[in-house]
Automatic annotation (TrEMBL):
Gene name, Swiss-Prot/TrEMBL: topA
Keyword set includes Magnesium: yes
Subunit structure: Monomer.
Matching Pfam families: Topoisom_bac (PF01131), Toprim (PF01751), Zn_ribbon_Top1 (PF01396)
UniProt organism field: Candidatus Roizmanbacteria bacterium RIFCSPLOWO2_01_FULL_37_12
UniProt-recorded name of the protein: DNA topoisomerase 1
Topo IA-type catalytic domain boundaries: 142-593
Site annotation Interaction with DNA: residues: H35, R152, R153, D156, Y161, W168, R335
Superkingdom field: Bacteria
GO CC terms in record: chromosome
UniProt enzyme class: isomerase
Enzyme active site: Y333 (o-(5'-phospho-dna)-tyrosine intermediate)
Amino acid sequence: MPLIIVESPTKARTFNRILKIANKDDYYVFATMGHIRDLPGNEMAIDFKNKFKPSYQIIAKKKKVVTELKKLGKENKEIILATDPDREGESIAYHAAFLLGLIKENWPESSVKDGKNLKRIVFHEITARALSEALEKPETLRLNLVNAQQARRILDRVVGYELSPLLWKKMGKNWLSAGRVQSVALRIIVEREKEIRKFKVENYFQIFGKFVNAKQKARLPHATPEVEKMVKAKLTSKNGEPYEQKFTLKLFAGEYQYAKTTITSVQVKSLEKELLADTYEVVDLKENIVSRFPPPPHTTSLLAQDAFYRYGYSSKMTMRLAQDLYERGLITYHRTDSFNLSTQFVFKAKDYIEKEFGKKYSLEKPRGYKTRSKLAQEAHEAIRPTKLDAKAAEKSEDKRITINHKRLYSLIFNRAVATQMKEASIKNFTFSIAGKKGYVFESELQQVVFDGFLRLLNPKFVENNSVPLNLKSGDQLELDELESLESQTKPPPRYNEASLIKILEEKGIGRPSTYAPIISLIQVKNYVEKDFRYFAPTKLGEAISDYLAGSFADILNLDFTAKMEENLDNVAEDKLNFINLLEEFNTPFQKELKESKQDKSVIDVEEEIKEKCPRCGSPLTVRFSRFGKFLACSSYPKCKFTKPFLRFIAGKACPKDGGKILVRFTKSRKKFYGCENYPKCDYSAWKWSEIKNLQSPSNPSSP
DNA sequence: CAGTGAGCGAGCTTCCGCTTGACTT
């Protein structure tokens, strides 16, 4: 009886179901639960003198899995490797085959011992047809792909296990970490912070006019009933001279565009006077109908971004919820970078759309999406519901399905179905309002002509933009009111979880399975902190990033991974030898390491604060430990005074005893707010909204 | 599924990527 090997128990279950239906129950399907053989954690385990030979071990937590695998291997002669079609999947297959005694390892060349009994099947879609087709023409293990994975693994190990100890010495903290992915993620945040500091904030004014058309009702963009008669437009030029200037900043990651006007506070008053005295006419009214297409279905990265902006979920939370939905069979696999939707789903979606919204909303031909990124590996489908049932999560009787699960399910459902809906048709109006003295105001608005997919994905937008513009060129308008707004130019924004994941994915840094863990890691290590929902580097994080960027500029660059991936593709296609690739990386790297090790200077990130040590009077300093920040006496080791670093919320007092409110954490690192006088006072709150309206300490409430 | 408060830190750490079940109530 053939033994089929896959990664995940869910995939195994699906296979069993399909095989049973096809009356092929003489297969046994076994799940490895991911990698089973890897480098040990407690040492480098790379032999640099022997072509980077790795010493793999069975992963401690997988011993049971491997015992079971070996037992099954003895019982079943024919082995069918059915792991994911990408690099990591091929590697899992390889190590499983090795443990079953079917691979001869002779570094750096490995070979398959018994090709008759070892087969590899590959498919991108788990359906009965794909499976039976694959079973009919099995292939062989792709050793070049395995080598690409090994090169990736070894390179990451070398980078991580060389750079980390360097940091331990450099910073005097033996728990620090560095790596190809995490250090670049950190640098992205650090460089942005510097760009923000460097940014010069400037004040400027914007002038908006509200115009009335006595004869006809004109509509204001985003109109409310009360102001329906008014048209709001922005002053943009005089005699062809624009007031607005646009600027583009080149940033570490991408660029930043911003605009300001040349209008200063001095000019505003006289401008207002002149504008109010003028008479106006609508000119250059243009209509332009454009199609708006639905966004692609969710990948891991897009789902994390969508859930963050829509519901404020952290990536960790989103992945946890998605995992639960996946395990209950409600959605497809949630760690994916693919836009592919199975043909079965696409056809069912068409039926669903026609039944739910009518034929006007469905497509004749299915719509597909191209991956933007060449770095995608597309081992899975896009994330989509498994059933065309909008209420599938709602109906679940599982008590562990919460409102959050249901919300995330809806997000996934709507987005996937929307991909197969007609595009929306939007009429864009742009027009100017010109005064006799040469002043020009400009405005634009949109009207939804046909809602298409927006009906499902953004009904509010449809509702707010359904009325046509009731103006035409030549209409005479009166300026009813002026609104002068003082603004400041804004620096590029800090990253949040969504924008960080977006840039990581764009640059191919990290994989769907690692985005959330990486974001957790740089916070747990105290390299970055969240200021509300935005990342700011700590002193420690900035020092680490600057040091590494200075000494290992190539690795800390955004295109390092992209170049590595290109090379790994060449290895997979047998155009490049993977040992040569490793050597080409490692030779200059070791040189840089040697130079860095010669510099014995130590970087100090400790920062003195105003507060004095109660024991000896020396200033206290903020220090970093693996458990977070703490305050310690600056005359350590002479004085060993320490105390916790507390984060007070300014301007809030405890409603029970008037004490200061501070941020605390539960044992499981969940954030909450509490009174400084704990345990005497037990006031606590989970959410900002609960403490938002608390009184300030100096201003106790009277009633 | 939720889950609400120590005191530690300054000797044996650290990588990336693939999986799920893992605490306790």
